[in-house]
Amino acid sequence: MASLDTTPATDIVVVADDRGWLDALVAAQRWNHRVRGADSIALAVETSADRPTLIVVRPSDPAAAIDTLRGLGLDQPTLSVVLVARDVTVDLLRSAMLVGVGDVLTDGAPDDTRLWQEVLDAAQRLADQTAPVGDEPGKIVLCTSAVGAEGATSVACNLAVSLARSSRRVVLVEGDHRFGDVRETMGLLGATTGGKTTDRRFSSTWLGPYLHRHMASGVTVMLPPHELTTIEDFPSRTVVEALGVLQTRAEIIVVDAPFWVTETHRLPAFADLTLLISKDAPRHLAKARTAARVLKPYAPTTRLVISNYLDGRTPKRKDLAIALGLETIARLPDTAGLDAFAAEGTPIVVAEPTSGYAGAVGELAESVLAWSAPEQA
Q1: Are 332 and 364 within 8 A, CB to CB?
Q2: Considering the entire predicted model, what is its pTM?
């Protein structure tokens, strides 16, 4: 008979007001996880190590527990919370999800097989989300534009969410340490980060403070602190090392980077696919043509995404697109009337999943998943 793998995959920390229920639960360590108790939610969060940790909270007052969780912040990718309550109402579910609770389960006895199976399922999901992806490194998709305000950040954020919905493990990277607004678009304004990234050596552990989970989509977001460090003082090694580490933890890494970062750090050389985003107007496509010249050495792995597509109102669009020397992979419709969602920190594909823009981004995600670099001669 094959021996069982007894290596703990996830730490399960139980916080319960009923000490007898907690003791009985902790005593039932029959699974491939380490189970222990904690006296408070705050202590459970504070003592969570870098390894995946599932916190099971069974409070006598669920509303008070949710208030506590709101104050702690639950955006660490290696941390997940399950709330166990006797009466699970719609209002309770909504309040719990808004503070980052992953699951809300109906209460049961310590030996309740149904309850424990649901807890174990949540623990396994967390282990799967945080485990190395295997020998094959994650694919890097670079989103950039010749100038600002072309919609590159919107494309990157919404693409990352769409890719995550296809059961892919996705990391979205803010590539502009000076003026990037991925934080705003993803609603992570309150997210804290580690210290300055300049001249730091990256590792899986060291990346932790910069990674945050977008709860509505499951996307992990890497947010470097906003710094006014000049591009010359921000070493390419820092950027490349971070991407290398993320490739061991995600299947797809979507990078939102302005063109000056893209060009200086030669990011297309490391990307599996580069998306050059341009609005659908001659003057915008003309600027994209200049960027396309810079990207010419990477033409086999570069595609054009037309944002704010005007559906025939620009008669010279086809000629201009051909002049870029790039194949068009997607045409995204105008986001008029939808920009408010981004301002509120909700990607369009989450806020308006039936909109034309969300549908077009979904098709782009399918193209990205199906895309492979052409064979080099």
Answers
A1: yes
A2: 0.65
Residue 177, SS3 per DSSP? coil
Listed range (65-74, 148-157, 321-330) with the worst mean pLDDT: 321-330
Residue 193 covered by a domain:
yes
Range among 93-107, 159-173, 184-198, 307-321 with highest mean pLDDT value = 159-173
Domain that holds residue 234: 139-370
In a domain, 59, yes or no: yes
Length of the chain: 377
Sheet holding 302-309, edge to edge: 211-214, 219-222, 170-174, 252-256, 139-144, 273-279, 302-309, 327-333
Alpha-helical segments (H) within the chain: 19-27, 41-46, 62-72, 90-98, 113-130, 152-164, 182-185, 204-207, 236-246, 259-264, 282-294, 317-324, 339-343, 348-351, 356-370
Cα 311 versus chain centre, distance? 31
CB hemisphere CA count around 142 (13 angstroms): 29
How do 273-279 and 302-309 pair as beta strands? parallel
- For residue 319, give both structure tokens: 């000629």
Contact 82, 117 (CB under 8 A): no
Question: What's the DSSP call for residue 226?
Answer: P
32 and 100 both lie in a single domain: yes
Domain count, the chain: 2
The pairing of beta strand 219-222 with beta strand 252-256: unpaired
Residue 173's beta-bridge partner residues? Answer: 222, 255
Segment 271-282 mean pLDDT: 87
Same domain? For 167 and 109 the reply is no
d(CA 218, CA 350): 12
Distance CA(192)–CA(184), nearest Å, equals: 13
